[in-house]
Amino acid sequence: MKAARLKSLKNLQVIDIDKPELNTGEVLVKVKAGGICGTDMHIFAKVNAFSHHLGHELSGEVVESKSRDYDFEKGDKVVIDNATNCGVCKFCKNGEPEYCSDIRNLLMEERLSFQEYVAVPARSLYKFKDLSFQAAALAEPFTVALEMIETADVRPGQEIAIFGPGPIGLMAAAYARKMGVNRIYLSGRSHSQKRLELSRKIGVDGIIEVDKEDTVEFFKERNIELDRVLITAPPYTIKDAVSILRFGGILTYIGFSFDGSENVKLNFNKIHLNKLQIRATHAIPNRFFPAALNNIKKGVINPDDFISAEFDLSEVQEAFDYTLNNETVKTIINI
């Protein structure tokens, strides 16, 4: 089968490898589409050593199942959760699989990739109907946005800010608007005009171009105190969130840093006296695939707005080069 592999920085090749063999409890999936994630781009352009397998936002079609516990048949359309909880630890037994102490990470196991077939645990699959494979590939990042919304306890009528106009931030804004949040503010850099324009279409109430104006001053000048801040931006922006949250406000953060910027100084007197809460979110394993698929189907996010470009597997190098050098929301690889 054909598979994309990262050979060196910014150098992807499509190679021939054996089709994966199925173990008991696994399902063989013919991959149909996959989205390029920001983590994929970071590995491609900057890290390389993290993994040679890129691609985990995948949708496809069941080819064969060796699972007795899950009902999958040939031809079922599915999306793939890239991590699986164990089901037997104290957290799983207590109904808290998101805190599983023995998570199986299919990405770290290099079981997932932009390739023709993948063999994955049946419990990692979610069926869908009435969506294209390309639209369904948006479900994985949407699940991350939905977990951020839940973790931050976003409610109707609130004033919220979202730092970072990437796909997750934009999806969070779209869902928050659907929920009935009062006002939504989005921050990003001025070179992200396509993403900022999409945020306007979604219905955000204010945009802060952080390379042109100070985020904290933007809110202070307007006497805006935020109920929630959702951060999909670099860790240093947490300092700004602490400065603009109201008494009892909550911020939630998702993202990796690989260059030392993950170390941030914070004013814990302010956090303590203002009873602020900082909540991390990771979405591994993920509980929100059914909700994400359902909300895509209902039009909460429009795939046509989020999918900026599509490439075939044979063009995977061109796809990553294009995404690196052009402003996109989401690039899809068709397989």
UniProtKB/TrEMBL annotation:
Residue span(s) of domain Alcohol dehydrogenase-like C-terminal: 167-294
Top-rank taxon: Bacteria
Matches recorded under SUPFAM superfamilies: GroES-like, NAD(P)-binding Rossmann-fold domains
Keywords attached to this entry: Oxidoreductase
Matching InterPro entries: ADH-like_C, ADH-like_N, GroES-like_sf, NAD(P)-bd_dom_sf, Zn_alcohol_dh
Residues in coiled coil: none
GO MF annotations in UniProt: oxidoreductase activity
All residue ranges annotated as the Alcohol dehydrogenase-like N-terminal domain in the record: 24-129
Protein's recorded name: L-iditol 2-dehydrogenase
